[in-house]
Design brief:
By secondary structure, the protein is mainly α. It has one domain. The protein contains three helices and no strands.
Length: 61
């Protein structure tokens, strides 16, 4: 979704920005967990990432 499409939906524009930011943070944390071979943390972060991506996809509908 482009910026202009998000801007047209004023009420959810900040939600997109928040979710995209959170997805970025979790992705970085996941990369670190994988590098450190922390399987339990990586599994938890994958679940969190999936939930955030699902929430973002719901906003796009």
């Amino acid at each position: 979704m482009t910026y202009s499409q998000r801007s047209a939906r004023i009420g959810s524009s900040s939600d997109y920005t928040y979710l995209e930011h959170q997805i970025g943070i979790v992705t970085e944390e996941l990369a670190a967990a994988v590098q450190e071979q922390d399987e339990a943390l990586a599994a938890d972060l994958r679940k969190r990432l999936a939930a955030l991506e699902e929430e973002l996809s719901l906003l796009e509908d």
